[in-house]
Amino acid sequence: MSNREGNLEAPTRHPIDWKSPAFRDEAECFNELERVFDICHGCRRCVSLCQSFPTLFDLVDATDDGEVHGVKKEAYWSVVDQCYLCDLCYMTKCPYVPPHAWNVDFPHLMLRAKSIKFRQGRVKAGERFLSSTDVHGSFAGIPIVVQTVNAINRTRFARRQMDTMLGVHPDAWMPELAAHRLRWSEPKRGRVTEPKHGERTPGKVAVFATCYVNYNEPGIGHDLLKVLEHNAIAYEIVRKEACCGMPKLELGDLDTVEKHKNANIPVLARYAKEGYAIVSPVPSCTLMFKQELPLMFPGEPDVLAVRDAMWDPFEYLVARHKDGLLNLEFKRDLGKVSYHVPCHGRVQNVGRKTEEMFKLIGQRVQLQLTTVERCSGHAGTYGVKTPTHPLAMKIGRPVFKAMAQPEPDVIASDCALAGHHIAQGIAQAGTPAKALKHPLSLVREAYGLE
Questions:
Q1: What 3-state DSSP class applies to 446?
Q2: Is domain 330-447 given the CATH code 3.30.70 in the classification?
Q3: Residues 128/247/106/384 CA torsion (nearest 10 deg)
Q4: What residues does each domain of the chain span?
Q5: Which residues face 412 on adjacent strands?
Q6: Is the pLDDT of residue 8 over 70?
Q7: What mean pLDDT do residues 421-440 have?
Q8: What is the reported pLDDT for 153?
Q9: CA 153, CA 159: separation in Å to the nearest integer?
C-alpha cells in the first residue's frame, strides 16, 4: 500500500498485545509515540477533539525547528495525560488508521503509555479510588449512611477535602449515592414468559445494570425495564456483575480490567449462549464489552460471544421496530428536546439509534428535536479531577451553547455523566435547562408509563 492520505476501506482494529514485554517497554513505547506524534503534527486535523492534540502541537511549535524530534521525551506524558480514550480521533478523524500502512491507533497508543505509567506507580491514590466504582458505590442503598454521605458531600468543607485528598475539583458536579440500588429494588425477571423473537432481535434481554445505574441513578434502569415490559420483551437483570472495567482502562490499570473481565464474562456468556440480547444503559460499558475486551482478549470465545450479544438499548429498540415488534402507541408530548450523542455511543458504529427512536416518537406526538454530536468534555473522571475539570468545561463549551440555543424543555444524553456535565455548563453560561432527563426516561414518558 502507498503512503497516500486516507483509506477507502473501513477502519480496522488490531488486538492489543498488552501482556507482551514490548508493550510494557518504555523506550519502545516512546519510539512509537515519536513516530505517531510526527504523523499527527503533519496532519493536525484532530486539533479540536480534545486537549491531547493542542498540547502536542504546542510542544512541537515551541521547539527550535518546529519538529517532533525536538520535544523532550518526558513531555510526552503531558499529551498522554490529556487523553481520555473517547476514540473519536480513530473513528471519525484520522486518515491513517489501519489498514493504512502508517497504522496509527492514537487511543490505544495512549492506553499503552498509560499502562506503563500505572505499572511504574505514578498514578495517584485519589485517581485509583475514583476509578474504583464498586468500592465507593458499596455505600449505596444503606439507610442513614446514604443520606449522611450525600449531605456531607454537598458542603464546601467536604469538597475542599475531596480536592486535597482525592484531587476532585470543588466545582465539579459529582453523582450522589442512591437510596435504593436497582438490583435490590426490582424483580430479577419480568413477567413475560414466552419471548417473541424477531428476525434481527432476540425476544429476551439480559440487563447489565452498570455501576452508575445501580449505585447512583437507578431510575434510568427502572425506565429501561418499564419500556421492555411495555413492549412485551422478556427481561432478566444479570444475576451477578462487577464493574465493566472502563474506569480502570482509562487509568491504564489493565490487570484490574482483567479481574473485572474474569468476574463478568462467565456470567454474561451464559446469557449470550442462551440467546439473550445483553443490554447496557451506559454507552461506555456497552463499548467495553463490544470493543475493548475483545481486543484485549481476542482468543477467548466467551468474550467474543458476549461481544456479539451486546446491544445499546436504542440499537436494540430500533432493531425491534424493524422487526415490526415495537409498540408505537406513544401518548405524551415531549416538547423541545436537545439531545447529545456521547462519544462512546458514536464509536460503536451503529448510527444515531437514539435519534432514530426520537424521530419515531415525533411522528406520533409533539417532539421538536435538536441533536448535538460533539464531545461534552466530561469523559469519566477527567471532568471531575482538579487539573482537568476547567479543561473539560472548555471542551464542552460548544456543546453547552448548541444544546441551550433552542431553549429546550429538556436536555438529554445517553451518557448520564455527560448530561449532568452539560447541565452544569449551561447553567454557568446563564442559560439553565428546564430539565435534564435520560433518553430512556423520555421514552417511558412518551409511552405514558408511570
A1: helix
A2: no
A3: -70
A4: 26-119, 125-166, 182-321, 330-447
A5: 339
A6: no
A7: 94
A8: 83
A9: 6
